[in-house]
Design goal:
seven-stranded mixed beta sheet; Metallo-beta-lactamase, Chain A
Length: about 350
């Protein structure tokens, strides 16, 4: 009996090993096909001409399984502009297949959760193409310090990579970050940051005090338009520049859900965290307030991002939105990493898909 049992055990082990080997071969074939498809069909050249908004980070400073730090890529024609580079931005852009073309970054402000992925974004851009100039970083006054700090922090790493791969593959002149500061003139609420190749980018003041300067951005290209609010309390300036846009990408914070965190912190005796949960409520916008802007200013669609707090359960989306869907009856979505909202120049459609799911 013992011999029979031992023999049966050996057979089971061999069968398991065989099954594991078969699974491995299948996995390798799948990987080969996906790599071939990714190399042959890059995402950006395959998109129709127009504006496309790709969410490379829909969260805020809190850990969130579905949402990295703030990052929104705007693709206009074949050019890509990245607004903010929160934690995991570079990796998420890579997973979405959005590296391989030159890009620029625009910062809304200098809170850590909006810049802490900048070093990796600059590195991935440098490594993805034969680029001989640094990453261009647009932002309000202060962006020079951010660019200089990240360039210095990554200077040793850049030297290692050029030494390892050679200057043809990793040209030293392509490493680092180059600041392109802009200032909104006194008495005005906006300035045109870039106007070339049919793309117009306007920066406008937002209300994120005591953080100053802080801006949002409007993109116009071939008759389609997108506004990205940046971090802000409900603001008439955002409403002004969002008037009639195809897509408003607006930050959103749920006061009831944040207060649940505050109450839990107080119950645990963590008064510092409780105070922070109270403080953050006065310089963000509720979903309903963002929906009111979309309604009153006749926005085509509303995409809520910088989601605070995290929503670990999909069923929390209802409590998060509150009455926002009643306020704005047009297309309204809660952003998730990988989202792609397309605004083709050929028509007036607005479609939402995903580059990850």
């Amino acid at each position: 009996m013992k011999r029979v049992f031992t023999g049966l055990l050996v057979v089971l082990v061999l069968l398991a090993a065989g099954a594991w080997a078969v699974r491995g071969r299948i996995a390798l074939r799948i990987m080969e096909r996906r790599l071939a498809a990714a190399m042959a069909n890059p995402v950006i050249p395959s998109l129709p001409d127009g504006l496309h908004v790709a969410i490379c980070g829909a969260g805020g400073p809190f850990p969130d399984h579905d949402r990295g730090g703030p990052c929104t890529a705007v693709i206009a024609g074949k050019r890509m502009f990245i607004v903010d580079t929160g934690e995991a931005a570079g990796r998420t852009l890579g997973r979405m297949g959005l590296f391989g073309t030159d890009s620029v970054v625009l910062l809304t402000h200098f809170h850590s959760d909006h810049i802490d992925g900048l070093g990796n974004v600059a590195l991935q851009r440098w490594g993805a193409g034969n680029l001989t100039t640094p990453l261009r970083l647009y932002g309000p006054p202060g962006v020079e310090r951010v660019a200089a700090g990240f360039t210095e922090a990554y200077a040793l790493d850049a030297g290692y990579r050029t030494a390892h791969h050679g200057p043809v593959v990793m040209p030293p002149s392509g490493a680092g970050v180059q600041a392109r500061p802009f200032a909104i003139p006194e008495g005005q609420d906006s300035v045109v940051v870039l106007d070339e190749d049919g793309v117009k980018i306007t920066a406008f003041r937002v209300n994120h005090g005591p953080i100053d300067p802080a801006v949002g951005y409007r993109f116009d290209y071939r008759g389609r338009s997108v506004v990205i609010s940046g971090d802000t309390a409900s603001s008439p300036v955002v409403a002004k520049y969002a008037r009639g846009v195809d897509l408003l990408v607006h930050e959103a914070l749920s006061t009831p859900l944040v207060n649940l965190i505050r109450q839990a912190a107080l119950a645990a005796g963590n008064t510092k965290r409780a105070q922070i949960m109270l403080d953050i409520q006065n310089y963000h916008t509720s979903p309903s307030a963002a929906a009111a802007i979309a309604r009153d200013d006749k926005v085509g669609a509303l995409l809520l991002n910088h989601i605070v707090p995290p929503l670990p359960l999909r069923a929390l989306e209802g409590p998060f939105l509150g009455d926002a869907r009643k306020v704005f009856t047009g297309p309204l979505w809660i952003a998730r990493d990988g989202d792609l909202v397309s605004l083709p120049a050929s028509d007036r459609t607005i479609t939402r898909t995903s580059l990850l799911r």
